[in-house]
Amino acid sequence: MCSRRRICWRWAACLVFAQLPICIDGQRAAPSILCFRDDLPGVLLKPRFLPRGEPEMDLGDITPAALRARQLLDNLTASALTTGCSLSISGYSWGYGAWFHSLVDLVTAVLAQAKVPQPILLHAALKGNVNWSRAIMRAWPKRLKNISTANRTNVHHCLGRNLSCFLDSFPSLKTVKLRPDTKCIVAEQLRSEAAVAAKSLFSASKGVTQLHARFWAVCTLLERILHPSEWLADRLDQKRIELGLNESYAHRPRLSMHMRRGDSCRDGARSGRICSNGTAYATAVMEMVSNFGYRSLVVTSDSDDAVGELRAALASRGWQPHWPIIASTASQSAERDRWFKESRQPGWRDKIRIEAQWAAGDLDPWEDFESFLIDVFLLRESDGFVGKFTSMFGRLVFELMSARFGCVRPYLSLDASWCFGGFQTSPDGNRRFKCGMTADDYGGLNTTR
């Protein structure tokens, strides 16, 4: 457990280095990673996990359920490699968060056939799929026109390439030459063994509940899918430098937050999500601070106004001036909100769904995709999370954050508890946000639930 402490500087040294952690009895506490077991009361079952007085895990330890998921997935991928058979997959192309979660089901279904899930095809918005665009525009005919393009690039670095330009998904599966599915036959016994292993990945076992098995399966699969390419890793390094995301400025423990405005503010009837103000988020942050001593905050949002509200609310609630608030707003989304207000468009408060803006050509989906990935990867590096689990983005960040060390970080969701899928009843029983999409929702390949 994390009760270990290392001998450090004496009081004099601590007084010199003001940014170092507080010294107690002439010693400095070892850096805490705020990692907890997944069998503690309330983990995943409630919208918040704020363990008080519970022992932390040592750095390098991993929860048994997370270890089990890694081992089962390793066995599945090893079986797929022995066949050398590959099958392309194409995700459920709504928002990018939903798209990545749909890949969890699709990747598992392919591995259950003892085949390699390669290539992963691009989101329909990136491919410029005409049929998808027409369907989106029929569903949401309203769209924003003549948006300012001041923050847009003419040609994205990855334009004309495939997903591998952004992500090096399942790098271990690229060690053998793959054969397309049409030219490949898998032995029946191997297929049967792979199907059993895939089902086990999402199933309860001794000491592991169904919910926890599913959680760690999702976390582990997403970690393998969302592996940055060399180019994206360089962009992440540049963004860290730009934002000052280093240990000497963004102190540990570090808290991550996602504040979504934009189209989420008009999705209440569909998802149960409401548009919370900066005060609600600031209250959640200060509760996390009082419990775990967070000393820096990393915020991503699609609205500069929302970040401004948060800063003001935090200042009035005790957030200290020398604790950094590092904010990143996706350029196009924040620009969209500004344009809406400045132009005084009728009904601008309704917000237009981002899928409709991609389909209409009002927003560049390639630039949005890059911003999405960078925000996800930056937020997952923190030691706790505040956001909403009705948001696919919020759940994706928390899942990758958990997968990183194989433990559960403190979290506070302003609405629902964790789930996998979409549209479940929220805790108050009034708003709908159900989890557990059907096979039809994900294109008929769902074999995991």
List keywords for this structure.
single chain, 449 residues, alpha/beta, Rossmann fold, 2 domains, 6-stranded mixed beta sheet, two-stranded antiparallel sheet
How many helical elements?
A: 15
Radius of gyration: 22 Å
Average predicted confidence as pLDDT: 78
Low-confidence stretches: 1-31, 146-153, 423-433, 436-449
Oligomer: single chain
**Shape category:** globular
Description of the structure:
- With 449 residues, the chain is α/β, with parallel strands linked by helices.
- It folds into two domains: 64-200, no CATH class; 239-433, Rossmann fold, CATH 3.40.50.
- It is built from 15 helices and twelve strands.
- It has helices spanning 11-16, 64-83, 96-111, 124-127, 130-139, 188-201, 210-225, 230-243, 268-271, 278-292, 304-315, 331-343, 354-360, 365-379, 392-405; strands at 23-24, 27-28, 48-49, 85-86, 179-180, 254-259, 296-301, 325-329, 385-387, 411-413, 424-425, 432-433.
- The strands form four sheets. A six-stranded mixed sheet has the order 3-10-9-6-7-8, sandwiched between helices. The chain has a two-stranded antiparallel ribbon with strand order 1-2.
- A hairpin with a 2-residue loop joins strand 1 and strand 2.
- The longest helix is centred in the N-terminal third of the chain and has 20 residues, at 64-83.
- The two termini are 34 Å apart.
- Mean pLDDT is 78; it is low at 1-31, 146-153, 423-433 and 436-449.
Topology readout:
Blueprint: H1 11-16, E1 23-24, E2 27-28, E3 48-49, H2 64-83, E4 85-86, H3 96-111, H4 124-127, H5 130-139, E5 179-180, H6 188-201, H7 210-225, H8 230-243, E6 254-259, H9 268-271, H10 278-292, E7 296-301, H11 304-315, E8 325-329, H12 331-343, H13 354-360, H14 365-379, E9 385-387, H15 392-405, E10 411-413, E11 424-425, E12 432-433
Parallel strand pairs: 4-5, 6-7, 6-9, 7-8, 9-10
Antiparallel strand pairs: 1-2, 3-10, 11-12
